[in-house]
Amino acid sequence: MSVNSLAPSWLPYPDDANDLASTVWSTNATRSAAGELTIAGVPASEIAATFGTPVYVLDEDDARSRAIAIRESFDAALASVGSSAKVYYAGKAFLSIQVARWMLDAGLNIDVCSGGELAVALAAGAPGARLGLHGNNKSQAEIDRAVSIGIGAIVIDSVIEIERVADAASRFDRVQPVRLRINSGVHAHTHEFLATAREDQKFGIPLSEAADVVRRIRSHPSLEFLGLHSHIGSQIFESEGFAEAARRLFAVHAELLADGPVPELNLGGGFGIAYTSVDDALPVDEIATRFAEIVSTGAAALGIPVPIIAIEPGRAIIGPSTTTLYTVGTIKDVLVTDGEGETGAIRKYVSIDGGMSDNVRPSLYGADYSVRIANRTSTAEPALVRIAGKHCESGDIVVHADYLPGDITPGDLVGVPATGAYCWSMASNYNYLGRPPVVAVRNGEARVIVRGETEADLLRRDTGLETETP
């Protein structure tokens, strides 16, 4: 055993650098008898040979089952306290036509936050009533389209939007259901860039102004007020933040009941998932039970009925379902000294054929991921590695620190799990790399659900070409 001094304190030295932690990898990710990573019965080498790398590999049954589990858990938990749940899949995490259909099949609604996401949901056949529209700066065109298709709810994010939505509803002769997003001031235990309910940020209305803003909403006959909305952040592993946000919202919710119905309370999403073996994500049934306890306690303290509770998980459903496969290109052992140049340790840089263009989260806010060799296993001593992308940026890192067998070599495949959320959806064409395909695997078969981009695709948009690329 040789523990590298460069390893972060949270990263344990592995007993087996080939092991697939069940909390991190999708349900149907296993090692074959020969040691190869297989996902839903499809070998990694077969996927790479057929579709190339990088490639997002989505375990379809895993995603479907997580969606069903969240809906059933919240249905049961809220029913036990005399209420019901309304579960939205947060499309911003990852949305495609087929994934939208899986969510609808699982009984979920879909939350969208742009005209493009709305278009995808509609292309999937989603009824307007099962959609919700978010966003701090919705265009009038987006509002008009949402109202015109009978969208189930629009989240009002600013006072300005009240008139815009009310006008659109009048023009389309509809009474539009709306929620009001509240900035509760609750500080979730998460990264600064992921916390979305603090006082100094772009989302929502201050809690102190809620009553006045709701009066303005109710003054419009073309609007129907559903209730308050809160989202305290993302990648949250504890329930205390939700409890405090609910406590603050319930006080205003009770006040609003004096002037009219408030059927719902939306507590958002942000449930954390495991990206590394040391992440301790709450099981979904425990999350649902805690939510039910939180809202029933809050309602009882004020002597009001428990409202319908809406939630918006995205990462918790799609995040663990996906593994990104890469091919190793170059490897460098870099001596890192202590600053005095006297002592040092080796960090092994393993460069892959993707990077920040297909997973910007590590570069954007230091997100941690895990990695394993995908095409084989090895008994070589574990070595501390950093998985680097191929982009012309020193910050282009996909995995900051993990252990791989020390005989990792060019041409090996590596798999980075838990890449289903905010990887494809935030992907770019930096350095003119095409965005990778998304391949769904199920029962030993693989199929493309989002086609990867080619150089021809990228050039086709450039008007400098004299003739259109065929």
| Gross CATH architecture of the largest domain | Alpha-Beta Barrel
The residue ranges in which pLDDT falls below 50 over 5 or more consecutive positions are: 190-198
So, the CATH homologous superfamily of the largest domain? Answer: Alanine racemase
Count all strands and give the number. 21
Alpha carbon gyration radius: 24 Å
Biggest sheet features: 9 strands, mixed
- In terms of DSSP E residues, the strand content is 15-25%
> What is the helix tally?
12
**Can you tell me the CATH topology of the largest domain?**
TIM Barrel
Helix content: 25-40%
Task: Tell me the overall shape.
Answer: globular
Q: What number of domains?
A: 2
Output the structural class.
alpha/beta
Mean pLDDT: 92
Distance between the termini: 56 Å
| CATH class placement of the largest domain | Alpha Beta
Output the keywords:
2 domains, Lyase, Ornithine Decarboxylase, Chain A, domain 1, TIM Barrel, eight-stranded parallel barrel, about 475 residues
Can you describe this structure?
A hairpin with a 6-residue loop joins strand 14 and strand 15. Helix content is 27%, strand content 24%. Strands 4, 14, 15, 16, 17, 18, 19, 20 and 21 form a 9-stranded mixed sheet that branches. Strands 5-6-7-8-9-11-12-13 form an 8-stranded parallel barrel, surrounded by 6 helices. Strands 1-2-3 form a 3-stranded antiparallel sheet. With 470 residues, it is α/β, with parallel strands linked by helices. The chain has 2 domains: 173 residues, Lyase, Ornithine Decarboxylase, Chain A, domain 1; 234 residues, Alanine racemase (TIM Barrel, Alpha-Beta Barrel). Helix 2 runs parallel beside helix 9, helix 5 crosses helix 6 and helix 8 runs parallel beside helix 9.
